[in-house]
Design brief:
Elements: E1 2-4, E2 7-10, E3 16-20, H1 32-43, E4 46-50, H2 68-81, E5 87-94, E6 107-110, H3 119-130, E7 136-138, H4 150-155, E8 162-169, H5 180-198, H6 204-213, H7 223-248, H8 256-267, H9 271-274
Parallel strand pairs: 3-4, 3-5, 5-8, 6-7
Antiparallel strand pairs: 1-2, 2-4, 6-8
Helix pairs in contact: 1-5, 3-5, 5-7, 6-7, 7-8
Length: about 280
Amino acid sequence: MLTLKGFIEIPGDIPVLLTAPHAMGPRADLLTGEIAYRVAIEVGAYALIATVSREDKDYNRAKWRDTPFRKRLQEIIAGLLKTHSEVLLLDIHGMEKPITSFEEITVLFGTSGGVTIDVDYIEMLREELEARDIQGEYAFMEAPQYMGGDIVSYHGKISRGVHAVQLEIAAKNRKLGERDLIDAIVNFIRRWDLTKLYTHELKKTTMRRLLKDAGAKRIGQDAPDVLRDILENIIIQTVVRAANIASTSQRKTIEGKDIRKGASGLLKKKSSQIF
């Protein structure tokens, strides 16, 4: 951990970066710094956590792009893009007050109107939240303050491979020691990172060969892609489950028994939950 002028930096080893620009009071988004820190440590992601108040320097505004915090943010993204095809940026915030007409929603996804992150990644995140009874939804016009600030809109460029989302989290999910939200974000990052790591290994030609080896006389044009998607989903969920089993047992090493148990638990689920 590095403490620099105006922020704390957590170094990482995966192409994921968390930011908490409003972590310091007065008018702090309480415990957003803790969330960014804990998630980053668990998954090995980068994190930048502000140590100045937004009343002094609001890093989520365009006028503060020329600050060490924002310059370092850009440096990390640029460095990761040299060795990775995609980078994930999660900007952590807290809702100051619930939106009366949408009280059941506890996490809002700010994507500048849906242009800063692939919709499939949002759905992946939504799945992890809903698995823990946390309701997530895109920010809407009735709450423009949650649509996404300058960090997401400026740095999130899908065409460059940078996928960014502002997470506005209700106070009830930012309690000290709250695990459900942390687990949802951690699992989402692990699934996303695993997808980036091995998707290119499950080649279409390999899927065609598997189908032919199974006795297929003719193969539909979409069959290899569908098979690959299903296998990727099974692998990702199995490995994430195995990692959680090892972590619960306070082990850093994932063992064969963890993978077997993860796969066994997955196959007991209804097919609609898997695919």
